[in-house]
Amino acid sequence: MNPFWSMSTGSVRKRPEAEEKTLSGELRTSPLRASTKKQLPSIPKNAVPITKPASPATSSQSTNGTHASYGPFYLEYSLLAEFTLVVKQKLPGVYVQPSYQSALMWFGVIFIRHGLYQDGVFKFTVNIPDNYPDGDCPRLVFDLPVFHPLVDPVSGELDVKRAFAKWRRNHNHIWQVLMYARRVFYKIDTTSPLNPEAAVLYEKDIQLFKSKVVDSVKLCSSHLFDQPKIEDPYAIIRSRKISTAKAHTCLACPG
């Protein structure tokens, strides 16, 4: 189980023994010994007051990778709620699993059953901003660049901002990003492409476009058995007998 989803109690620090003895000595010599009220320690002379950031956008990032204005527990709750929504949607042909190391990164794979990209199996990673659910939309990057007008031919990143120009809290969800990533392979959009060559061929030479798509599908298929680029026990792998995830949760059966 991803430790991210467990409410950690490790943050509750036990009072050092020396400090316990010191405080106990103070209480014994205090005339208010019988009082049940707790006494707060005195404020150090060089103490600096802690101020709340003016806005989430200007606050600093905490050491655990979460946004300082929200805190880890709020972020955990938000991402767990998003993952639950993905499970409920049962997106056809889509598998996804949060990383063991960080729930801000999800591993996924899309199966395409018909159309120009038929038999395509495309592995990807979803990178979620650390100030989620505010800020920009999550990024979706394919492990290998797919020949597609909306996929960057170098980085493999899908143009998600085309569909989510402004990410709206409580309105947009990660399952919608996954659905969009699946839909782009069935409904080709060539406006303002990230891969101009693919867009031009789709508009002017569909046969050559199909040929390059077939080559792209074959290339991705030839690397399905490669070890994940990121060492993570929940990274999605493909068995030679059946596609599966190194995890306990299967979200949807392909196609």
UniProtKB/TrEMBL annotation:
Protein name per Swiss-Prot or TrEMBL: AKT interacting protein, transcript variant X3
Subcellular location: Cell membrane; Cytoplasm
GO CC terms in record: cytoplasm; plasma membrane
Keywords: Apoptosis, Cell membrane, Cytoplasm, Membrane, Protein transport, Transport
Superkingdom of source: Eukaryota
Comp. bias intervals (Polar residues): 1-11
Signal peptide limits: none
